[in-house]
Amino acid sequence: MLPYGRQTVTEEDIEAVAAVLRTDWLTTGPQVEGFEADLAKWTGGVGCASVSNGTAALHVAYAAAGVGPGDEVIVPPMTFVATASSAALLGAKIVFADVEEETFTLDPAAAAAATTSRTKVVSAVDYAGHPADYDALRAALRGSDALLLADAAHSIGATYRGRPVGTLADLTTFSFFPTKHLTTGEGGAVAAPDPGLLERARRFRNIGLVRDRAEQRWPDEGGWHQEVHEFGLNYRLPDVLCALGRAQLRRLDAFLARRAELVARYDEALAGLDGVLTPGRRSWAEPAWHLYPIRVLDGRRREVYDAMRAAGIGVQVNYIPVHWHPAFADLGYRRGSCPVAESFYTQQLSLPLYPTLSDADQDRVIDALGAALRGRPASAVA
């Protein structure tokens, strides 16, 4: 089965991990600080806190923003459920706002309409690697105290009007899951331009521990002393995985370039293919392309999905609208509230996209898609 996404691990990566295994540090050592510094080179110098996974990054970011019971968090439904569930677990009410046609990122007008005096955070999602319209979102939030969060699980390395993802919002979260642009096995990070927000994120991911004597209530207790002023969780990313991330970051430029080449090949090959629409993009964005999401028209998405899977092509659907999940349905959320996202879901299909996808394998994907649309069986792909 040809997967829709795949990690790219080399001997250099393996040696980087092995080198750490030969030291006294497996977790919370020098590679953590090094990885965060390397990552900041991709966020326009904005400081980063590494965490154990992308969902943890969202939870940490919401906690750093002070999200709690009585607050509202605005989320687009076209995302993985964690963008919403991690805020709900802090007691927030999730308010779903629809997405824009073409990019399927958060619609600034919908976000403005959903904003109230209780809105604590507005979470934009850079769907498929295309940045949301952050200037328009800032304008939509004018007069509100809400913080803007960028869920950039898909978009590290992307730019918006020439500015890198990581500089565009009050808080930015990343994921380093194996199918993403770089991997630490599991892992994630939170970026924040405001030093106070960044410190809150770092403290929450480290169980809330306060070791700085200048900030302790009882600093003279002894050299061993540490305090917890606000509860946190253990979301630390260990040294051994940060070493993998540092090795991967050295090749991120190449990863992004290959993804862009593959997207261009898909665009050209599928431009005249009846029954599908290729991904849209805006002139002000340089996407990072985590996904290549086509739209299969005429109600044929399930048919095409099944045919391509039968042919050994691991297409995927990204994502079920979040408010359709039973956990949210049981809270009273109803279908029909976000028609653009819901219509897109009925058509969406992600084609394989990863740096080691060969031109020949991509051509097999294209041929299998054409065969599926013609209603003919495609030859199996190993």
TrEMBL record:
The entry's keywords: Aminotransferase, Pyridoxal phosphate, Transferase
Gene3D superfamilies assigned: Aspartate Aminotransferase, domain 1 (3.90.1150.10), Type I PLP-dependent aspartate aminotransferase-like (Major domain) (3.40.640.10)
Residues recorded with modification N6-(pyridoxal phosphate)lysine: K180
Similarity-based family: Belongs to the DegT/DnrJ/EryC1 family.
Keyword check for Transcription regulation: no
Superkingdom of origin organism: Bacteria
GO molecular function terms listed in the Swiss-Prot or TrEMBL record: pyridoxal phosphate binding; transaminase activity
The protein's name in its UniProt record: Aminotransferase class I/II-fold pyridoxal phosphate-dependent enzyme
Pfam families the UniProt entry points to: DegT_DnrJ_EryC1 (PF01041)
Catalytic residues identified in the record: K180 (proton acceptor)
Cofactor: pyridoxal 5'-phosphate
Transmembrane as UniProt keyword: no
An annotated GO BP: polysaccharide biosynthetic process
Transmembrane domains' residue ranges: none
